[in-house]
Amino acid sequence: MDHLDYVLVVTALSSVLWLYTKSKRRSPPLPPGPWGLPIVGNLPFLKPDLHTYFLDLAKTHGPIFKLWLGAKLAIVVTSSEVAREILKTNDVIFANHDVTAVGMVNMYGGIDIVLSPYGPRWRMLRKLCVNKILSNARLDLSVNLRRGETRRTVRYLADQARVGSPVNLGEQIFLMILNVLRQMLWGGTVEEEEREIVGAEFLELITEMSDLLMKPNISDFFPALSRFDLQGLAKRMRDPTLKMDRLFDRVIKKRLEMDRESEKKGEDFLEVLLKLKDEEDDKTNLNLNDVKALLMDMVLGGIETSLHIIEFAMAELLNRPDIMKRAQQELEKVVGKDKVVEESHISKLPYILAIMKETLRLHMVAPFLIPHRPSQTTVVSGFTIPKDSKVFINVWAIHRNPNVWENPLEFDPDRFLDKSYDFNGNDFNYLPFGSGRRICVGMAMGERVVLYNIATLLHSFAWKLPQGKRVEVEEKFGIALKLKNPLIATPVLRLSDPNLYL
Ligand code: HEM
Question: Which family does it belong to (predicted)?
Fold first, then answer.
């Protein structure tokens, strides 16, 4: 090799090396992750309780790892630092929710808040909810709609208490929350006799839709196959969605037929939404489908979350009579035994609030939030996160991190009396409602409904378990995390005046 050749070879090699390091520098690698099979990736290895399975994987692969769910790349985050990078540092890029094939059928083609991509339409819907429907001022107007349903449950439980009969508490809480939400949506519209019919149908449809939304779907793992709907899930979702749509139509028609002048104004969501739709100077340009998609969001976002928090809280308290007693002492001091709890009391009940916060820490009902989806390829913690991947933030695991939470598996509301964690998502170790742009829009309502109903159940009744029994507080993964086994307990009247149970 003469000198010129030597120079050429060295130059060529250096250029290749330079290009290689440059390209390396330009695109960091994907996060690490477990090996998968060709085509199906990690799908065959998934376990039903995804939240615990993902935590186990994080122990091997670190706070950010990847999985191939068929052709779809999933990124799983298990630390508050990485969660912050996603939800705060890169919040606009991650401000979309992942869209599923069945969700699109259920949500009028994705025109609702949850599935709308971040942009002007989502902003308009969100503003409408925050200012006109779910604000504290608006919720103050509908306090009686909520109160009536809770009192109805108290009457039923009091009847059972008088005969010493155990109740399926989870079932009762479900019915109570379902009815509270139904009342908020259109309670001022539907008359008493029709209420029962609409209620029974409502319960059936919600259960069916939640089940379908949870089913793993080939259409999501291989989007190119989605038009074949190989498991028939989209087709199956059409039926309950159509029935719910007809139910919405019925109540909307009823509302439109009512003599508006003679009705009380501004109580239920439907009335507010229809009024907005008809306002001439309204800039939202809402149409009927928009109204129905918003009602659907409230139905699916508002019921399962609140109901499971109350159920988990009651399950924990039944195992901890000392904590239940402290909560009841607080209620006696603030409300007294000669009155019933009202929503106006809840801001004066810090221990009940601590019970709600601790329940949400230990049993995060939306364990991965609603999975987010980056609108462009970006780098997080030194790894490339490609556009459109599905990002699971395992908040359930973050809430149990032993480096942050002392004795994380113990139910201890006191930790929230000492530290000022709130629900606003500012501390990335505690994110029960999410954080940033997509934080839960129904937070104010969820907080009221949960606090008021826990307070009422504890104030009106002492609760007994069969002799020597404990509640197994086990979790079951689903669209919302729920208690695995039925919660059976016997209510015992606590208040001396029988009129307080009417
Ligand atoms: C206490 C009960 C509740 C909890 C724990 C809860 C939790 C959450 C969480 C974790 C998210 C996802 C945040 C994210 O993706 O980053 C969310 C979103 C949402 N929640 Fe809630 N929620 C509750 C009650 C409600 C209620 C009562 C409603 C409505 C009536 C509601 C409506 C929604 C909607 C529409 C979204 C989507 C917001 C968006 O995409 O911009 N939630 N919620």
Answer: Belongs to the cytochrome P450 family.
